[in-house]
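tool_call predict_complex ligand=S-adenosylmethionine
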Amino acid sequence: MNYRHAFHAGNFADVFKHALLSVLLRHLKTKDKPFFVLDSHAGLGLYDLSDERSLRTGEWRDGIARLLARSDAPDALAPYLAAVRGFNEGEGLRWYPGSPRLIRNFLRGQDRLAAVEMHPEDARLLSDEFAGDPAVRIHTMDGYNALKSLLPPPERRGLVLVDPPFEEADEFAQLARGLKEAHRRWATGIYMLWYPIKNRDAVAAFRAEAASLAIPRTMAAELRLEADTPNRLIGCGIILVNPPWTFEAEAAAILDFLVKVLGRSAGASRRIEWLVPEEGATPRAARQ
Ligand SMILES: C[S@@+](CC[C@H](N)C(=O)[O-])C[C@H]1O[C@@H](n2cnc3c(N)ncnc32)[C@H](O)[C@@H]1O
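tool_result ok
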């Protein structure tokens, strides 16, 4: 386990993932009933962008910093940008929220977060940060095991974020297996699985595998900052299951803006596609 998210906090991939995550969290708050969030690969709570690791890569400069410098962001981005600004009052841009802190920001008194982190040092920092917070429980364990042991939640409403570091050669296969098992336990939850776009064939195979699970209402949303180049991280995507009905339009507005603001070349693009639209529909992969 070499991956440390501190080198990448606030980069384009975080912006993409956290902006779309914020749309889902805001949607969950539209009903009074409590909801539950499982963050299976949590990382840290808050990242200090003046930390040596952040400064060394400076990735946030081509990510969140570019968004905060704009005044023409679409309404769908407002909850995310307000959350990030809320952590930086009077400080310009110094702090960037990792997923547990961002999720916590959206919880009400009746909602819960289970954050899972396997790296012992990050898990300890996370536990210290949320010590005494009754809404948050930290689990030091394997995130894929958590998809089995922590689901279904008693609340029966909520969201699962699966955001692994892609250090393992079989991470795509683990993701697909994890979704299948989690969905079998909890079919009504919203699922968001992040993946890198580095190898076009691997991404196509993963999308086909996700489609072949035939889980109704499965969507893929992708952002490419430039045209596909073999073995170069040119973008990222998410597989979503059970997104709210308004999500597609909000995601389109967000991704159009990210293409404009974060794109590296004229080859920048976005894609939103239903892999399995509705109950009983034929999976897209089977139609091709
Ligand atoms: C991409 S980072 C998470 C970023 C975070 N979700 C966010 O959006 O701010 C992946 C995290 O997963 C942790 N990790 C790696 N393998 C894991 C596993 N099997 N189970 C749980 N966490 C794991 C890493 O230590 C790292 O902190």
